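Meet today's protein:

…
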Amino acid sequence: MKKRVFKYKFVYWIILSLNIILFISFSIGLINRIETDNFDNSIDVFSFVAIIMICILSFSSLIMFIIKNKNSIITFSAVLFLILLIISFFLFYSIFIVKDFGENSTDFYTVPLVYGIILGILFITNYFKFRKNINELEIDEIGIKND
């Protein structure tokens, strides 16, 4: 029997392509962050460490999806959860520290849109994951009565 991560191949290819996009985009962000070499305050260092963590987790999740490891969904969910935490941190930073949230009218609908997309991907990932049927009988157990 083939190793499966999701119930449907379509979901597998969507999540795999999304994982590739996440890895490439955060790798480009990491390279740009290293080239600018602008680590003036603790927020810059925090964002740099967060980008490194997302890159490493996304790469490991990508490798796990390619070899169809059973823990690939957990690592991909960790990547999405980490992205949500980073977005939430910078949202609270923008609202309470800098106090510049709402100066642009797009602030009010982009944040819920991004949260909705990421939470939707998390839902799809965990809803369509492949669950092995526990009640399957082994070949040796066929015809044997178990009480």
About this structure: The chain has one domain: 9-130. DSSP finds four helices and no strands in the chain. Residues 9-130 form one domain.
